[in-house]
Design a protein that fits this description.
The complex is a heterodimer of chains A (about 150) and B (about 475).
Chain A: H1 3-18, E1 24-27, E2 35-41, E3 52-58, E4 69-72, E5 88-89, H2 105-117, H3 127-135, H4 137-151
Antiparallel strand pairs in A: 1-2, 2-3, 3-4, 4-5
Chain B: E1 19-22, E2 28-30, H1 31-34, E3 46-49, H2 60-63, H3 97-106, E4 109-122, E5 125-136, H4 138-143, H5 149-162, H6 174-182, E6 193-204, H7 223-233, H8 258-268, H9 278-291, H10 303-307, E7 311-313, H11 316-319, E8 325-326, E9 333-334, E10 339-342, E11 348-349, H12 351-358, H13 372-386, H14 424-427, H15 434-440, H16 446-460
Antiparallel strand pairs in B: 1-2, 1-3, 4-5, 5-6, 7-10, 8-9, 10-11
Classes of the chains: A alpha+beta (about 150), B alpha+beta (about 475).
Amino acid sequence: MSAGAKKRIMREYGECMADTPPGMKINFDERNMTKWEVLLDGPDQSPYAGGHFKLEINFPNEYPFKPPVVSFKTKIYHPNVSNDDKGSMCLGLLRADEWKPPNKVVAVLRLIQTLMIEPNPDDAIEPSIANEYKENRKEFEKNVKDWVKRYAK
Amino acid sequence: MASTGQQPSTAPSAGRREMMYCHECHDEWYRDEHGIICPECDSEFTEIIEDGNDPRDNAMHDMGHDSDSDESIPSLEEAPPNSHPLHNHNPWADDDPEDSDISQMRRPGAQEINQIRFEPVGPGRFHVSATIHRTISPAALGQNGNGPNTVGGFTSFLTNILQGARPAGQPQNPAGEGQANAGPRPSQDGQPHVSRFPYTASARLRPRDSNNPEPRLEPVDDLHNVISGLFAAFGEPPGGRPGGPDHNNDFDGMPMNPLLGFFAAMSGGQHGDFVYSQEALDRIISQLMEQTATSNAPGPASQEAIDALPKRKVTEEMLGAEGRAECSICMDEVNIGEEVTVLPCKHWFHHPCVSAWLNEHDTCPHCRKGITKHDENAGNTAAGGTASSSTSAADPVANMPGAFGVTGEGTPSNPYIVPGTVPPSVATDPNTNTAQSQEGATESSSGGGITERLRRGWSSGPRG
């Protein structure tokens, strides 16, 4: 990883500390600054409210020319998060062909919060959940709360 | 004609009176009453009626059965053995021998096809799978040398179908297959042999798209695939392998004739560069898309284009209203007087920062506007500055890799005629940015140089 990338990550961390989005806590390890651990509270206006989700943000060596990789370490019932042990999330500006260097981690974190409030079923990684979100919102929210109770407390 | 050799059981008893028969008038009488001369017609052509030799046989129908109910007259049904060539032939006494043959034939090879499954695997696609079980008991094979002829019959039926697909020189005799099929196996272990044939095929049902060329249609089902699989189930591959029902003939394990092998390989869908199913095509497409994850984004910008980007010292005006700005790539603050690279879209960055990005993507990191337009202009200026004979500097095709950009009054017979002098119109070509032309005149473009050399070579060639 280039010195420029490290410098940028340090700068971004400083920015995040100065202006941390609400309901978010960032654990930063200077010895391994390419891996951020984020503790995220389920947004109040979402069915994820009350849950605490652990995320990992990994910065590639080519950062900021390649997007960071976001993964949920806490299981979450969400159309845009893969329902496996990776819990990967890949959409919007996180996509390799959508990413551009001026994007910042703060923007990524805000995107995640937004997606928890309003999932994007048209760009889903879990089609069955997306379908349920679109066609049976009640059942979707019930499942979300069920999973929050089971995994995210 | 009188026969005296009699079986003991049918010898006339002592008390029995001999009957006489006249061949002339068919009369009958007792010998002890009238002698051996016919009392009616005095004929001497008479005969003693004996058990095994009844002269009335021939005249039976004429005479009818007379009232003589003498039990000594043998009934036809109780005819003595050996006196009749067909004595054992009694179609009604026993089961029809052919019936028994058939029942024997049925016994050795019991086949059943079960587990036929249709499972839809996608829109318009389904799989058919079936399992055929065939049990052959060794005892049946031993007793019936000709083996399960029912199978042989079916085998030969299939063989007839297959003959077209068979390479010349292979035995085409169905009977031969029947033999090989049914021959007793050396490894008789007393267990019934079960050959199992898992048959899987898939087909698709989708409407044709008449507006677009379709990829070569996969066969709805490979007839040869099915048939050779069936052969495997029946213990005999079409190639005539001396195997048998005791081999568990998996389809892929059997030697096939080349055509069958070809079809089998195709049905796998991963054979070389061609595919025969939508599924396989989708797999390849998604694989390609994964390999080039950024395929939607433009490719890298050329080094010349990057080098040609104008550099400028940051002015107060560029900092904007806040009075401070940063390079959005490295996020370092940029101060007045620092040199930055300005893209055609007016966004500016540190030169090392933006060139690192442009080496991967020909877009502005901010607004994604490409710098290719600038690239074209740079090419134009280079060509305009160094290539005196260029006639196509403004032609975008000329700037594409591999394009020679030769235009001229060529004809199909002599396409290489290129104007040797600059037409005056080039200098005032509206597409040429004159301001940049002067700027780029000092830069050399390798592309233009090569094109130039090629042109010179051609123009001196055909024209002599």
